[in-house]
Amino acid sequence: MINHQCSKIQLDGLEFRRSGKVRDLYSINDELLMIASDRISCFDVVLPTPIPKKGEILTKLSVFWFEFTKDIIENHLITDNIEKFPSELFKYKNELDGRSMLVKKANPIPFECVVRGYLSGSAWKEYQEKQTVCGMKMPKGLKESVKLPYPIFTPATKEDEGHDINVSQEYVEKALGKELVKQLKDTSLDLYKKASDYAESKGIIIADTKFEFGTISKGTTLILIDEVLTPDSSRFWPKDRYVPGKAQPSFDKQYVRDYLETLEWNKTYPGPDLPEEIVQKTSDKYLQVYNIITGRS
Question: What are the structural domains of the chain?
Fold first, then answer.
C-alpha cells in the first residue's frame, strides 16, 4: 500500500531504509529507491496537510537540474524512468511513476551546503541582530532581500527532526577536514553560479539554495545527492517583481511560511492544518516555477 499524503510511504516486501521530512527511502539490490511524497515541512515541522503534485514536481525538477549540472559534479541519479526500474517495482508503477528515482547508495555528508546570493530568511534576521550572516561580518546598511556583494557559503547541520542549525565553515572543517570542506564550498558555489545564471535568464532569481553531498567508491568520490534546486530547498523569486528592501513574492514554500507566521503557533510539532486556498496556491506556485525553469508542462 502507498499513501502519498502525510504518513510514511509503505512498499510491502521491500527493505525500508528511512524517512525524511518529505522523502522515503528503500533498498533494492545495491541501489536505493527514493520516493518524494506530497508532505511539506515548514520550520522543520512536517505539516498534516499535503500539497497535491508536490512530490512529482520535486522529482522532475531535481532530474532536470541533475542533468544540467552533471558537468560540475557527478550525482546519484541512475534513472527516473519507471520502465528501467527493477521488475519487482512494476506492481507499484501507477503510484511511483513521476515521483520516484532509482539512485546510487552513498555515504551522506552530515551537513547541508547552503549558498546565499541574497539577504533573506534566517540570514536577514541574524544580520539585523548582529550585522553577521552565519557568523560572517557583513557590510553595514544592507536592506532585506538585497543582492549580496558575492554569493556566500553558509553550512548548516542536517536534522531529520527538529531545527537545522547554521554553523560556521570552521565548525565544519573541524568535523570533516579543510580539504573536503574546500571541495564542498567550491562545488556548491559553482553549482549556484551556473543554476542562478540560467534561472535568471528565465526570469527567476534563486535567492538561496542548499545542496547535499555524499561519497561513493569507498569514500573517495564526492557526488551530489538528495534533491537539488527545488522550491523545497531554494528561494525562487520572480525577477520582474524584485524590489530590495522588503520580503519578496516567491514560487516556493515561503508562501506557506508567511501564512504560518500569522498564526499563534510555536513552530513545534504538531503543525496546524492548512486551508484549501493555501494548499492550492502553493501547488500552483510549485507547478509554475517548474514550467518556467524547464519549459515543460
Answer: 15-105 (3.30.200.20), 108-251 (3.30.470.20)
Helix axes 169-176, 178-201, angle to 10 degrees: 130
Residue with cell 519578496: 248
What stretches in the chain show pLDDT beneath 50?
1-5
The answer to whether 248 and 237 have CB atoms below 8 angstroms apart is yes
**pTM for the model:** 0.92
Cis peptide before 270 (omega within 30 of 0): yes
Query: What pLDDT, on the 0 to 100 scale, is given for residue 44?
Result: 85
- C-alpha cell of 93? 508503477
Count the residues in the chain. 297
Per-residue confidence (pLDDT) for residue 79, from 0 to 100: 97
pLDDT value for 164: 73
